[in-house]
Write a structure and sequence with these properties.
The protein is an alpha/beta fold. The protein has 14 helices and 14 strands. Helix 9 crosses helix 12. It holds the Pfam family NAD_binding_2. Its EC number is 1.1.1.31.
Length: 353
Amino acid sequence: MAIPLSRARIAFANYSWSSSLSGIQFYPAARGFSSNAVTAQLEKVGFIGLGNMGFHMANNLINAGYKLTVNDIDRSTMRKFSDRGISAVETPFEVAESSDVVITMLPSSSHVSSVYTGEYGLLHGGSQLRPWLFIDSSTIDPYTSRKLSMNISQCLVKESKGNPNSPVMLDAPVSGGVLGAAARTLTFMVGGLEDAYLAAKPLFFAMGKNTVYCGAPGNGVAAKICNNLAMAVSMLGVSEALALGQGLGISASTLTNIFNSSSARCWSSDSYNPVPGIMEGVPSSRSYAGGFSSKLMAKDLMLAKASAEEIHQKCPLTSEALNIYMEMCSRGYESKDFSCVYRHFYSGDDNLQ
């Protein structure tokens, strides 16, 4: 659950922000930063978190010619990189010490906090840091992201060499799932200093095909939470309608054709259909293996629910979607793709012609 936001106004190096029951406001502050001066300082990239998403993102950076140093808690995964001659080190601090830029792709807010501020974490060096840029592509709560951004902005870069004197953090969660990570078609939603975002664009386009600048620190993760809320609700709606249609005697393929040529068309129907036998290459075609797990969807819905409660926003569909995915996890489907709700909550059948 997200930590409650303080009403106190906190000054960032590039923004100051204040929160209240009516929401969060940001105020841009002057800061010397030249994107042209730092664009060249992207060659040495650290990558922490080599799971289903991070593994492909790191590979794409290597394929694009970047010199990587990697770290993960799974030693067997690290060996897949070290066997190819990629530097694999034991701690996040070692990653920071050999990198100009560090990218993190981790499961939760607690993992991100540990990697940044834990023992031998990225900030273990105190106020003097080697990297000038930190990019967190995890999906976490906005409070944690903004707090880290503030802490990083209060440090100094050891050797600026044309970089800003203070390091910068961007929150840059992604949309597109494992398939998008493998195909390099991810969309990055980026919060933080705009000049840093512009300088980091080559990195983003080495891992994906779209970027959207969302504004101040924490806005990237806020956008991702909203995106995944909409994705969860649309998957439930499509699954519910397809299962109902089957019960009323309409085949899933017929109903899918109707959806995709009319007003019900959406990503959950035309690109990620949950019915086995409708589409190839999606989790429903392989017993819901891979993809975006029900456990991660439940986690993101928890973040959305906590954020809504913080600003007193009514979000009843968020709560209902969270209840459904929590039930899916409790019944043993936490590792299955979230589209398995069609089969295991709504009891939908395979496509029957």
